């Protein structure tokens, strides 16, 4: 197996990984989490700690 064979195998693997990340990013289930993360710079310190607490509780329940 030479370097060109490895390159030929790496290209479709990288493409599949790109498509998977793209699909994960734009899936409907991730929208709420991304919206919360986008609004974190505008939240008060108390709101931030509440959001972090809620997200850690959600992670622990899954």
Summarize this structure as a short list of keywords or feature phrases.
62 residues; mainly alpha; Cytochrome c oxidase cbb3-type subunit 4; Cbb3-typ_cyt_oxidase_comp; transmembrane helix; membrane; transmembrane
Structure description:
With 62 residues, the chain is an all-alpha fold. It has one domain. The protein has three helices and no strands. The longest helix has 23 residues, at 3-25. The chain is elongated and about 55 Å long. It starts with a helix and ends with a helix. The model has no long low-confidence stretch (mean pLDDT 84). The chain crosses the membrane at residues 6-26. Keywords: Membrane, Transmembrane, Transmembrane helix. InterPro entries: Cbb3-typ_cyt_oxidase_comp. It comes from Marinomonas communis.
In a few lines, what is going on in this structure?
With about 60 residues, this protein is an all-alpha fold. It has 3 helices and no strands. The model has no long low-confidence stretch (mean pLDDT about 85).
């Amino acid at each position: 197996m030479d370097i060109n064979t490895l390159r030929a195998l790496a290209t479709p693997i990288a493409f599949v990984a790109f498509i998977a990340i793209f699909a994960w990013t734009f899936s409907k289930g991730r929208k709420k989490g991304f919206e919360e993360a986008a609004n974190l710079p505008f939240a008060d310190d108390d709101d931030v700690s509440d959001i972090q607490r809620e997200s850690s509780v959600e992670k622990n329940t899954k």
